[in-house]
Amino acid sequence: MRILFAGTPPFAAAALDALAEAGHDIVLVLTQPDRPAGRGMKLTPSAVKQAAQARGLPLYQPASLRTPEAPAELRAMDADVMVVAAYGLILPQAVLDLPRFGCLNIHASLLPRWRGAAPIQRAILAGDTETGITIMQMDAGLDTGAMLSQTAVPIRETDTAASLHDTLAAAGARAIVVALANYPALVPQAQDDREATYAAKLSKEEARLDWRQPAATLARAVRAYNPAPGAWTLLDGVPLKIWSTQAVAGAGALKDADFLRASARERSYEPGTVLLAEADRLVVACGNGALSLQEVQPAGGKRMSAAAFLAGRPLPAGTPFGA
Questions:
Q1: Domains of the chain: which residue ranges?
Q2: Which CATH architecture has domain 205-312?
Q3: Annotated binding residue at 112?
Q4: What is the predicted pLDDT for the residue at 260?
Q5: What fold is seen in the domain 2-199?
Q6: d(CA 303, CA 321)
Q7: Using an 8 Å Cβ cutoff, are 29 and 46 in contact?
Q8: pLDDT beyond 60 at 212
Q9: What 3-state class would DSSP assign to 219?
Q10: What is the spatial distance between Cα 265 and Cα 30, in angstroms, rounded to a whole number?
């Protein structure tokens, strides 16, 4: 089968590699233009570009597909199908109509739940216990096309957006190979729009922790925003990133004298207040329960354990976070 492939990040690169390994004829790879990255802001190729170059596949990096030139370039490839995975550019109808069998999208959720840009993070934030991969026939809407297959993936209590991304990338790579092996005999199933939810793009500001929230909610937020944009709070007006935490039902739920002392403080301290900062334990009051901070990163510094942070920055009980 002659395939046009469109994708940009590592999630898409996994699918490209799987399709190539399966022996498909990938006639052209589309990916976004190189972007500045790193401290030096050096132009850096996408993960898909790097994967395509490693295999000697032809590349096309338009800034937009809405120009007259783009459809003409793709039409010349005489493709049977176009596979799209986290490409990042809108496909106009003129492009959707080009391949004989249309365009297939690898989406990282069980549609119609979590249509949109950040399905992995939104699933963790919402406390979902399951997500997955949907192979869908693309239309002009936002992840609204008919579904061809779905693969369920459990969300573990320890999953971050990074670890769940890797699991879903592997699942998506397997799913598209299976789908193409059975395509176009697969029977499309329409989505139920009444069950749709929207996975809005993440912002740095929303990753700022609101200590009035329950500890369990904040622990999910830390996992969902890892690695980007990174959960954070303020300490003495300076940002502090928080990479790993554990929610506790209350400071007194842990059976030792230190936490019994913290439990008494919890009853009188406002959310965001340090309950305990001793040795390797940094516990902060929340709207309900408390959050044990396990790995943090000061502004301009490296990620470190709570013990290493407290060794260089003692925090007496009552210290407020968030301001």
A1: 2-199, 205-312
A2: Roll (3.10)
A3: yes
A4: 47
A5: Rossmann fold (3.40.50)
A6: 18
A7: no
A8: yes
A9: helix
A10: 57
- Cα–Cα distance for residue pair 85/3, rounded to 1 Å: 13
What integer best gives the mean pLDDT of the chain?
93
Q: What are phi and psi of 15, to 5 degrees?
A: -70, -40
Looking up tokens 């039409």 gives 75
Across the range 298-309, mean pLDDT stands at 95
Threshold 0.70, pTM exceeds = yes
pLDDT for position 91: 95
Which residues are CB-neighbours of 258 under 8 A, at least 6 positions away?
276, 278, 281
Query: CA 314, CA 118: separation in Å to the nearest integer?
Result: 37
Helix (H) or strand (E) holding 261: helix 257-266
pLDDT at 250: 56
CA atoms within 13 A on the CB side of 197: 13
Which residues neighbour 278 within 8 Å (Cβ) at sequence distance 6 or greater? Answer: 258, 310
Residue 57 marked ligand-binding = no
- 117: its two tokens: 């840009």
State yes or no: 28 annotated in a binding site: no
